[in-house]
Give the backbone structure.
Amino acid sequence: PEMYVDAGEEIIIKDLTIDQLELRPMASVSNQPNPWAEFTDLVFEISYSDRVMIKLYDSNGRIVEVRQVDVVKGLNNVRFNAEDLDASGVIFYDIISSKEKAQGKMILIK
């Protein structure tokens, strides 16, 4: 993500890491089923339409999937298929919008 800072007549673009963003926690996040073997649906609620980034990573911190998803106000559902992921066991996820973030974990059985 980038942050734009108005410095008088010029705009400064700063690259930010996720840890530098101060976002409020996202309400109502779960994945179903959990544990899962074939697919899981990551379900979350958001109070506005936005583009979110969903990042999955394994227990070693290796990123196994990143998606940019346009979501609508209300309940949203993003499906992940086991055959598309080069990982098993505990999978961590981050969901980051422009105003909120959520983190969690799921168990993939292969």
About this structure: DSSP finds no helices and ten strands in the chain. The mean pLDDT is 84. The radius of gyration is 16 Å.
